[in-house]
Design brief:
Strand order of the largest sheet: 1-2
CATH architecture of the largest domain: Up-down Bundle
CATH class of the largest domain: Mainly Alpha
CATH superfamily of the largest domain: GntR ligand-binding domain-like
Number of strands: 2
Low-confidence stretches: 80-86, 225-233
Strand content: under 5%
Distance between the termini: 41 Å
CATH topology of the largest domain: Four Helix Bundle (Hemerythrin (Met), subunit A)
Shape: elongated
Order of helices and strands: HHHEEHHHHHHHH
Helix content: over 70%
Structural class: mainly alpha
Number of domains: 2
Largest sheet: 2 strands, antiparallel
């Protein structure tokens, strides 16, 4: 095992075993290196790597701290990476959405409070009769994020949120080019909301699957043609 990887594993072990709690400060570099049997240079590289993925927070002049380790913080790196993928890879993100979002929607139908359900209904009500595609997609993102938060699972919510960005442009292009896409989106959102309001988790899951799969299938068809590339961002 490379020395830096060994150093990373040793620091992670201290966190996992509770020796370093969220928010706690790491010992001085020299002391920690000696304690873990590492060179100061390999320890420094490990700290740099763990800070990039938001496990550690290096504060200039103050020291190095374990972050809060909250899922949304740790999964932030996923959103950063997926922003660089090209159109054909968007299909893979949509495939993952098709797995995760129905599960979140099912949980939301069980766990959402009446107030949260009312908030979901309010999001739908914000759209006018003839919204622009951009307004519809922005509303769509808020709608799905609200449901993900309503699942009560922070990890699931953070994963879904990190996957939203790479699929936004595909959603906009679908709305501009596919006949009836706007109407179907609104109808499916309404069906999902009604299932959640009625506390019908299986129905909510089914509608969420249909909804995400529709975008995925459209993109598969679009990318299969000679003029299928999405317009540049």
């Amino acid at each position: 095992m490379p020395v830096t990887d060994e150093a990373i594993d040793k620091i992670k072990a201290m966190i996992v075993e509770g020796e370093l709690a969220p928010g706690s400060r790491l010992p001085r570099e020299a002391d920690l290196a000696e304690r873990l049997g590492l060179s100061r240079s390999s320890l420094r590289e490990a700290v740099k790597a763990l800070s990039l993925i938001r496990v550690l927070d290096v504060r200039q002049g103050d020291g190095t701290y374990v972050t809060s380790l909250e899922p949304d913080l740790l999964l932030d790196a996923i959103g950063f990476v997926v922003d660089f993928h090209q159109d054909d890879t968007v299909l893979q993100f949509l495939e993952v959405r098709r797995v995760l979002e129905p599960a979140a929607t099912e949980l939301a139908a069980i766990r959402m409070t009446d107030e949260e359900v009312a908030g979901l209904r309010a999001i739908l009500a914000e759209l006018g009769e003839s919204p622009t595609i951009e307004a519809l997609v922005a509303n769509d993102l808020r709608f799905h994020n609200h449901i993900a938060a309503g699942s009560g699972n922070k990890v699931l919510c953070s994963l879904i949120d990190s996957l939203s960005g790479p699929t936004t442009r595909a959603r906009i292009w679908r709305g501009l080019t596919q006949e009836g896409a706007v109407r179907r989106t609104r109808e499916q959102h309404e069906a999902i909301c009604e299932a959640i309001e009625a506390r019908q988790p299986e129905v909510a899951r089914a509608w969420a699957t249909v909804h995400v799969a529709g975008v995925e299938q459209w993109l598969r068809n679009a990318l299969g043609g000679p003029e299928s590339a999405l317009p540049p961002a």
